[in-house]
Amino acid sequence: MQGESLLLKTREISKKCEVLHTASICRLGDIVYSTLQLGLSSLKLMDLPCVPTLLWLLLFLWPLPVCRAQNSVKFSLPEEQPPNTLIGNPGETLGLEKNNRLFKLEIGKPFLRVDETGGNLYTTETPIDREDMSCESPMECFLEFEISVTDTLYYTVPVLVEGKVLIVDINDNTPSFSSPVISISIPEHTNAGTIVNIPTATDRDAGTNGVASYEVLGTETHGLFSLQVAEEHGEKLPQLIVTGRLDREQRDTYDLTIRVVDGGKPPRTSTAILRIAVLDINDNAPKFERSSYEGTVEENSPVGTSILQVRATDLDLGDNSQIEYTFAQAAESARRLLRLDKSSGWITVQRPVDREQVSQFKFFVHAKDKAPIPKQDRAAVIITVRDKNDNAPSIEIRGIGLVTHKDGVANIDEDVSIDSPVAVVQVSDRDEGENAAVTCIVAGDVPFQLKPASGSSSERKKKFFLQTTTPLDYESVQEYLIEIVAVDSGNPPLSSSNTLKVQVVDVNDNAPVFTQNVIHVSLHENNQPYNTIVKVEATDADSGSNAELTYSLHPDSSTQGLFDINPDTGEIRVNSILDREEQEHYEFKVAAADKGTPSLKGTATVVVNVLDENDNDPKFMLNSYSFSVRENLPPSSPVGMVTVTDADKDMNAQVTLFVDPDNGEFEIQNGTGTILSRVSFDRERQSTYTFQLKAVDGGTPPRSAYVSVTINVLDENDNTPFITQPSNSTFQHMNPLTTIGAQVDQVKAEDMDIGANANLTYSIVGGNPFDLFQVSPGGSVTLEKEILRRHYGLHRLVVRVTDGGTPARFATALVHIYVNDTMVNVSLVEALVGHSLNTPLDVDIAGDPEYEKSKQRSNVLFGVIAGIIAVILVIVIVVLIRYCRQKEAKSGYQAGKKESKDLYTPKQTNKNIKHKIKKNKPPKPSKPLEDDETGAQRGLQFNLINESSSDSPRIHLPLNCNPGSPDLGRHYRSNSPLPSIQLHPQSPTAGKKHQVVQDLPATNTFVGTGDNNSTGSDQYSDYSYKANPPKYNKQVGMLLNASGTK
């Protein structure tokens, strides 16, 4: 019973859906049916007022097409099948639902029938013989059918299924000749190899079941004949071949048995007698100009209209050249409708030709001469019939599904949905091409229209659904006369019409309607129970029992037991005391149902507004508030926000806030609850503020509430770290032998802030190019690498102390570390520290700056000295060579005696040298001592003096000769002294590496002096090198602005 009730409700919803002007919603009955199958029938959807909206929503999630034909299906069936042979199930092929469906065969009788519940398609008692059917093509023969599928559970619109059954040919016909005796004539003395055509056999079957081959039986050919089968235009043609010499005087006739076989399995055969008459000689046979002729003729052409002419020629003379034309293998229709002139070969219209009956003629024409022994030729003729617009469209109107027609009248309920089909209209035209293109319309102003029923319809045959376009109303119109007009596209166009009378059946299609869709009721809270609050009224456009109404409230858990209604009068009363603070609005549905079958129901919404009374105190969201703000906020800055509510409404809920007590430090904004400061906070002065807020509502009398507020001042990073140790002008002495990892200094700093703002980190940001030192997070400076000679001297580390604030603040400390073995000259280090304070921080001060430069100068100096030594060696070697040669040449040399061949006489040489000396005005050398000369005669001596104090190399080069050559030695001593070589350094010497401290007192260990005096021999000129380096000038830079120095 519950399922039947739900079914009735579903139908009721289906009726209501149709009022929404869309037929698609009615498909939602399937959803309710699925609910029944899942066992959810207990779900009382029909009692919910929101079902139409829900159904709309589900419609878009599950769209289904309506009122259309499915794509056509195709089956195949051999002919001559027994009754009740299953052909197929069109519904299953298309995936249609079979449950609760009615299948009805619209087209296909009497050969087919359909199972009304299952949809299976069967054969009937009427046999299907392919040879008796009118087939569009000899190879394909179809039997068309239509089936309408109607939902019997929800009465939704039917679905039209179109289909075709391909009738497959079976080999049920035996091929046969036109006569049991076939006579042909062959002239005597016909050449061997001559081919003579034999009349063909016919077979009503088609395709492979048709004629397949011919053969001559037995040995009756007498060695004079053989048979071959040719194929022309898809037809098997038997041909007799003359293989021997024919002599009429010996034998004038021959009888052969010829058999025809079709291609069926098993094959069918038949035989005939082929009688061959041997005639006298007729030399030439007629010959057609072409082997085939093609022509066209318009249907309905007048009698006598010429179509085409076949022509043949014969080279003989007299009667042998006279040609007579006759039909051969022509169908009865061709012989009946066409005329072939025997003499001229003209083919003309003999009777009116209707293309709709015969669209093409195919036959052969024989040309035979009139000789006693005639000869003939054959040509194929194809004549196509052109269409003429001589057929008006045909309109067929029939019922569909549950809508039946009787005597041209269809009955339909007024509550059918839009686009519901009333009939199937089939429009066809027997013409072809544009003459068969039909336009079909509904004439007049009626709420019906035609929509294509299938995409498979051809131009010659179209199917339409005659559907409703608007809801039908029996109370307005009870009957419609629908005229359907079809017009083809011929010239001139032809038209036809057909009519259908549609009678509208009255149903209970008017639901009760309330005077107001939404009924508003106002009621003060704390009311008296069981008072009537409103009376609702509804009307019904129907009459009688369909207009008698019963009122009820829709079940709603939110209003259960609070309200009830009188079912006869519609009076609604409240059953309990209402509290606006618990619920301000009550909304429920009231229904009015008529007593029709099925019953229709109308609904309205009742909204009860509960009016407020001031029965609630203001209430803060928290029992107390605590806010934290940063110091240094300017006055009038927000420091917090409180939220206060009042369960009442309007003026009773308008709350005003006050600071209590008001000491001028804070104020509060009404409306937002924002607490503003009137002072600027300084955490060092006061870190906590406490006061109360008072909330007062606007009711009568007013109600109030209090809450405590605490303001905590948070620290802000407004103090920069300051360095307490070391001072920028101090330094630490470090021995080069200090172990790695040892602490060499300590940086200490303080910050007046607290928390993360006072967390200090230390880092070296400058002055550590050799990465000798490292500072720990606690400020401890340690040695990280081994001290080398180049690292001696003053090191300035730039240490940055950064706090943890955002943004961070920092201070910079200068850590001076003096690396040396001793600490003798303190004033020098202090001077270096003072110079560091005036040096920019981006300039590194680390170790001895002259160390690398001195290494470069030493390398250059050594290179120069090596060059000088090489030059001196070359000179000495040259002198020795000259000396030895003179000694060999003048082994008896006497002093004062001039040799004519002596190239090195003292007199000549002295004059030249004296002249040069006089010109250059050199200082006169002193006379050499004999002891020194004696010591020098032992060899050449080189004295290189490189005094470390001044780094000024000095070379003293005396030249002495042996006593064995006094004049030569005197010559070089007096006139050709070898000058000393003076070096000019190109780069500062190592003695300059302490120029930075030359102005310091002599007690400074780094102040060094060089010996600038050179000693030389009294016998020779003294050449010495003296270096006078420029004094160091101090560069006074910008004063170091040490941040954070206090």
What's the CATH class of the domain at 722-840, please? Mainly Beta
Distance between the termini: 101 Å
Helix content: 10-25%
The total strand number stands at: 61
Largest sheet: 5 strands, mixed
Strand ordering within the main sheet: 25-26-32-31-28
Could you list the spans in which at least 5 consecutive residues all have pLDDT below 50? Answer: 1-70, 893-1046
Average per-residue pLDDT, rounded, comes to 77
CATH fold type of the domain at 722-840: Immunoglobulin-like
Indicate the structural class.
mainly beta
Number of separate helices: 10
CATH superfamily (homologous) name of the domain at 722-840: Cadherins
Global morphology: flat
> Any idea what the CATH architecture of the domain at 722-840 is?
Sandwich
Rg from alpha-carbon coordinates: 68 Å
What percentage of the residues does DSSP assign to strands (E)?
A: 25-35%
Keywords: Calcium, Cell adhesion, Cell membrane, Glycoprotein, Membrane, Phosphoprotein, Repeat, Signal, Transmembrane, Transmembrane helix
Domain Cadherin: 73-177, 178-288, 289-395, 404-514, 515-620, 621-723, 741-851
Region (Disordered): 891-935, 1003-1032
Biased composition (Polar residues): 1003-1022
